[in-house]
Amino acid sequence: MEDKKSLVAPCGLDCFNCDIHESNLTAELAEVIHNARGVPKEQIACRGCRQQGGRHYHLPDGCATLECAKAKGVELCGDCADFPCPYLAPLADQAGRLVHNIKVYNLCRIGKIGLERWIAEEAGAMRHNYFTRPFVMGKGQAE
Q1: Is residue 117 part of a domain?
Q2: Domain-located, residue 76
Q3: Omega of the bond prior to 84 within 30 degrees of 0, cis?
Q4: Range of the domain at 80
């Protein structure tokens, strides 16, 4: 569980469930990304936001949200006095395909049920359902 805790980004994304996390990236997906975006294959796998200092091929200048959380001394944005803030705003023009649009939801659920329970029961479920069908509360998820 401790490894998964370190793979929850301050913004509430579950890096351990991400398709480009080094433990999940397939050769097929790496090939697709390489061909579509011209990213060298060795730069595609991600170790997680905190482990890479918020830098990855799609964030060459780093993640402002991670830097903000560090500056404010919070582990998760939901612990910040300014939560929610513009750093967590959804990307309306890409809402149908970017998981970043569920950050505030994840942080609210973490605040309500705790990080360990969220990791065990819900992390990834909202992401899957967000893109495929309406979310249905499963066993142990109702409050």
Answers
A1: yes
A2: yes
A3: yes
A4: 2-132
